[in-house]
Amino acid sequence: MRVLENVPIAKLTTMRIGGPARYVCEIISKEDFLEAWEFAKTKNLPTWFMGGGANTLGRDTGFDGVILLNKIPGIEIVAETDNSLQIKAMGGEEWDDVVEFACKRGFSGIEAMSKIPGTAGAAPVQNIGAYGQDIARILTSVDVFDTQSEEFITIPRAELKMDYRYTTFNHGPDAGRYFIVAITLHLSKHYLEPPFYNSLQNYIIEHGETDYSPLNIRRMVSEIRAHKLPDPEEIASSGSFFKNIYLDQVGADEAEEKGIPVWRSNDDSGKINSGWLIEKCDLKGKKIHGMRISDRAALVLINEDATSYTDLASARSEIINTVQQKFGYTLEQEPVEISDE
Predict the structure, then answer these.
(1) 240 belongs to the catalytic site
(2) Which end of the chain has fewer CB atoms surrounding its CB within 10 Å, N or C?
(3) Centroid of chain to Cα 200
């Protein structure tokens, strides 16, 4: 196990903001994790579990504890038939490599989630999703280390309380309790069918696409994301910074009466694209406190020259207040913040 001291959190996160972490341990096996866990206990320091840092923000004060970086690699086939594939992806594996693994074998379930940055272990924490797919639909179970019982266990998907960007891992009393070792996914040959989400549907119409195989959906989604979203390896960003707004049927009806576009679900509840609200507030493309609201996707904040978490917090507040005043909806931040609280 490798232990680093006084590592700037800005170097661990794609937004590239944050003060120093007292210790950082790089975890490439379960044995590494146990060693790092004992290291933190011996020093009586708080811990923070982290993957690729794509959905994580650091504060200016840093973190006076131990960050455990999940870099456990590997993807394996658990079971395969003509119509289904069950795979186990280790927590430190790049999520997009997991998507590629499934698509190359012709199995569906995660192809629309291509090019989402981050690790496989981080995927169930936020219940990631895109273009009509989310991990909750194909997740079977999660292998974790339970910091309360101090043992490795497997948690079935049914116990994770998964909803839009909400799970046991990031909300409630058990948030931060588990270190994710691996996830098990169940994929199938039931391909996505139209109508698709707007940007994907528009791409399909514009290019005359008729092939909805996993590999081709992956190619299309990858091209759409490359056009709309900054590559976090090249441009400092956390991807979609604000959550979309989910409404019950009454709320969805009221939004439509105000002229706000609503994406309806089968039960007639609905979703408002928060990026649309930001754009209609004339904020798209604007720079606020060193943070640029992307001129391609208004949900995305780009760290153009902000140097502190304070800059980010000021930009966030200004955007939230502007949308609140114009539309009456309160935007919620999607990335989590490293804290010992």
Answers:
(1) yes
(2) C
(3) 19
